Amino acid sequence: MGLTDGGIATPTLDREAPEIIHRVSEEGGGYTFARMVSAAASDGDATAAEVAREIAWEQLHSGPWHSVLPIWRDAYSMACLHVAKHHFAGGDFPETLKVLDLGLIMGGSLLRIDLENAVEKVMAVAEEREKSNNNVGGDGGLLFSSVEFNEDEVFQLLPTKSLSSKHVARRSELSLEGFLRDYYMLGLPVIISDSMSHWPARARWNNTDYLKKVAGGRTVPVEVGKNYLCSEWKQELITFSQFLERIQSRNTCAVPTYLAQHPLFDQIKELRKDILVPDYCYAGGGEMRSINAWFGPGGTVTPLHHDPHHNLFAQVVGKKYVRLYAASVSEELYPHSETMLCNSSQVDLDNIDDNAFPKAKDLEFMDCILDEGDMLYIPPKWWHYVRSLTPSLSVSFWWSNPEGSP
Ligand SMILES: O=C(O)CCC(=O)C(=O)O
Question: Structural domains in the chain?
Fold first, then answer.
């Protein structure tokens, strides 16, 4: 029996479909969607499946994300599964994967298990095909080579006064007790070196052949533009292979493409196997809130902002500059007044306007260069500015206590 035999199995969808169709018609006014998706299920109508997916997509983009009715997210996953079945039956595996990924990224949680199992099946089939075509990997190109790193050139791009004042404390072999006593309880940042050498990611992620093999065909959301506070900033969906090509081909004048703050490891299980949640995250109690990827070329900038959670920020490949300001100086950093941006500073560290923001001028800060294998603990509400100095792959672990306060 071949791997494609039997098509894509969707046991959860088969069980939940009547309820989703009922709710999307009753709560969401999705009568046309219900008709189309029913035709896709009963008659195998590929066009109807695609129309249903477009209707759900429109609904997901009809207003701010938080105002989208949750049932439309499950409806979107449902339509994606139907469309994927058709592509799979036609042997179009890249398109099948793309549609399944869109379901994982944009869809609800109800049908996630079917989407994940389908991805696994498609990946297995695609791998079989590669093998039978005798496609062997490339030569394992490096994403980042320290030989090419020109410190003098790169350091010129840092904000003024960088690396001239207080450095973040650096500790190796830091015990959990030491971490809790000297940093977590006091609300102070620290770099913990040499505590992730056992992660498979440390040995694997600097190899573009490996990344392409486990994730190349997957679709991921990326940000294109100087940073999220700029007007020309936009989001795109591209394959991970296309993303890696952009990282590698990037010339310094082009705007960076950044895979930022994305729960990539919920989406791509192979990459999740390469990282481990550090014990430090559980030392003071609390719950993991999210594990996010921050992957990009040299030159990405995350402007000065703060987050409500504890953050252990792991630098896996490449180097980053990080500047930190204590939570206590918030007012002097001129937070934006709009609710959506109130955790971001109006002060652009790459182009500081002393006249507009005089209080920020002489504020004390700490900074550091994060190297491969370093983890930086950022306490809740500490302001941070991050600039990648090379192609860079980092992972953030955000946690907080069950009541939601740090
Ligand atoms: O790496 C970056 O660009 C930003 C990381 C960050 O802001 C975070 O982990 O909270």
Answer: 11-132 (no CATH), 147-400 (2.60.120.650)
